[in-house]
Amino acid sequence: MKPIEMELEKSLENCESSKVLEAMNYSLLAGGKRLRPLLLFETCKAYGVDTNIANPFACALEMIHTYSLIHDDLPAMDNDVLRRGRNTCHVEFDEATAILAGDALNTEAFYVMSQAICRDDQKIKCIEILANCAGVNGMILGQALDIESENKQISWNELERLHRNKTGKLFAAAFMMASVLADDKVHLPFWQEIGEKLGLAFQIQDDILDITKTSEELGKSNSDVENHKSTSVTLLGIEEANKILAKHFDEVVGMIESLEINSTDLIQLLMSIRTRQM
Amino acid sequence: MKPIEMELEKSLENCESSKVLEAMNYSLLAGGKRLRPLLLFETCKAYGVDTNIANPFACALEMIHTYSLIHDDLPAMDNDVLRRGRNTCHVEFDEATAILAGDALNTEAFYVMSQAICRDDQKIKCIEILANCAGVNGMILGQALDIESENKQISWNELERLHRNKTGKLFAAAFMMASVLADDKVHLPFWQEIGEKLGLAFQIQDDILDITKTSEELGKSNSDVENHKSTSVTLLGIEEANKILAKHFDEVVGMIESLEINSTDLIQLLMSIRTRQM
């Protein structure tokens, strides 16, 4: 079992039992790529920061990501029934429980950060960063733009802004929290740009995979077509989308290589994302 | 305008505009009793703590309370259409926007606390307290118990546990954060009990008001009867409910008077709650 899986399992161990807690664990421990924790861990390693220090922040990232998936899948949002190869939370439990499980994971993310073992000023900065990246100036702004874009033609610029917020901001938070734990505040804006760029590239990849793979291969349903959403493929065509994807990935790698950190493993992680098939 | 109203207005001023932000402001600035901020301010005053220091924590409390109301009103939860005399958030906007607005207020609560001007160790302790009181061991546990109690006979003990968590824990957070800001950690468990007791009393009052006042007088719909929920009145009868209400209020006042703080105004606030008609 990966270390992050053990940390996630432990993270809700001391909570009072309820149906909502069951639903939280159901969604949080459903596997998944654990990309955001991995980005945080590898960036910490590149800086020479002990990854044990990063554990609560990795859990917090995955909790925020998981809550956003639970709420995103709700009937009033994307109305998806399949996620990571199994029932979405509201299908397995019920809508009310899924709403509360998402809410509780959002809150719990901040609780686990308050329990970290680093310095208080580092904790506060990480809490500030994650709250900002996950909130109405970040991930939720992206979700809001996503909903507003349904049944509507949007421009490539608008789609880029959507992806930079919806996906990029949590990637950015992973990089930025590692930078804080390494006491490197100077590069926070630099890491933010890397994170947003990677998020954009990741979503272009998703759009391409969505039309080249089946739901079964991906382990999730593809609601974008049903919800009449613009994607990078419908807006740019698959060839141009692939070109822009390559450009952004190359820029991310170039930016990281320009830093004086030991980024070999981090770059390798990025390469595995670059070549992912699901 | 009350100081807390000004603080709440300012709290979302620097956010990027979106429909979700509109919905956040719509619900956050809808008036209401602002009880949790008032409890925090008066407890700070009783301890001699500058109330300016308390502002971000007061905003955070009200953000958490507001998000819980938005989600509680959703069709999948209590399905209420009227709140504080106007449309609930999902009626005024739409369900998806209401879900996101609630999510964003939950997240923003932790952002505003990270920006407070007190010491870092006090911020961290307040974040820990609010996350714990609002999460799956606190307010959300109460919500979960509330949902599970629909269409079902529950015992008075179960209803007490429900109210102590759903309402009491946020009251407790108000008292406990004031105690942290006053550097009085010794009395945290004492304040927690006061908060839970007050929450229980408050909910018994609500149950009594619900059957003695109209929706119009209360400014909100009464969904408890429609959702076949047990209330303190249906379980105990109105006479016994009134007796237990009086007992808990008296105990709260007695506990506060036993502390060596200047609690005159705090007690007066409690008296105004004791005699409320809505």
Automatic annotation (TrEMBL), chains A, B:
Gene Ontology MF, one: metal ion binding
Alphabetic keyword roster: Isoprene biosynthesis, Magnesium, Metal-binding, Transferase
SUPFAM superfamilies xref list: Terpenoid synthases
One cellular component term from this protein's GO annotations in UniProt: cytoplasm
GO BP: terpenoid biosynthetic process
Cofactor: Mg(2+)
EC number(s) given by UniProt: 2.5.1.10
Catalytic activity annotation: isopentenyl diphosphate + (2E)-geranyl diphosphate = (2E,6E)-farnesyl diphosphate + diphosphate
Family designation: Belongs to the FPP/GGPP synthase family.
Name of the molecule in the record: Farnesyl diphosphate synthase
Organism name: Anaerorhabdus furcosa
